[in-house]
Amino acid sequence: MTRNERLEQIMMLLRDGQLVRAQDMAARLGVSERTIWRDMKTLVDYGVPVEGERGLGYVLRRAVALPPLVLSADEMAALNHVLRLAEAHADTRIGTGARSLAAKIRAVMPPEPEEEDESPLAPPGASG
């Protein structure tokens, strides 16, 4: 596992807002506690809102923006499919959230060539 992959894994472990000990993260990621301590300092230096200290544990205090992603055509197709399903969900929070998420993703995506079927990530009224 590369350092960047490990930092991403640490972020995933901290996302639920619960206190996580360095010892537990180290065991889960197969590294030493010292490595986790250094990684936590790196995350703080990057501006990630992590609070805590050695021997006590760490917690992520607020939501963090996702890093830029490069998605393959298959990943985009899967994302489109999941968003379509979510938009049709009986729980209006899920549908509203899916539409909001699609709009946010649309705002940062480069223009795609037009396709036959309507995509939730395509601007309203556009094909593709």
From TrEMBL:
<dbReference type="Pfam" id="PF08279">
    <property type="entry name" value="HTH_11"/>
</dbReference>
<protein>
    <submittedName>
        <fullName>HTH domain-containing protein</fullName>
    </submittedName>
</protein>
<dbReference type="InterPro" id="IPR036390">
    <property type="entry name" value="WH_DNA-bd_sf"/>
</dbReference>
<dbReference type="InterPro" id="IPR013196">
    <property type="entry name" value="HTH_11"/>
</dbReference>
<feature type="region of interest" description="Disordered">
    <location>
        <begin position="108"/>
        <end position="128"/>
    </location>
</feature>
<dbReference type="InterPro" id="IPR001034">
    <property type="entry name" value="DeoR_HTH"/>
</dbReference>
<feature type="domain" description="HTH deoR-type">
    <location>
        <begin position="3"/>
        <end position="58"/>
    </location>
</feature>
<keyword id="KW-0804">Transcription</keyword>
<dbReference type="InterPro" id="IPR051534">
    <property type="entry name" value="CBASS_pafABC_assoc_protein"/>
</dbReference>
<keyword id="KW-0805">Transcription regulation</keyword>
<dbReference type="GO" id="GO:0003700">
    <property type="term" value="F:DNA-binding transcription factor activity"/>
</dbReference>
<dbReference type="InterPro" id="IPR036388">
    <property type="entry name" value="WH-like_DNA-bd_sf"/>
</dbReference>
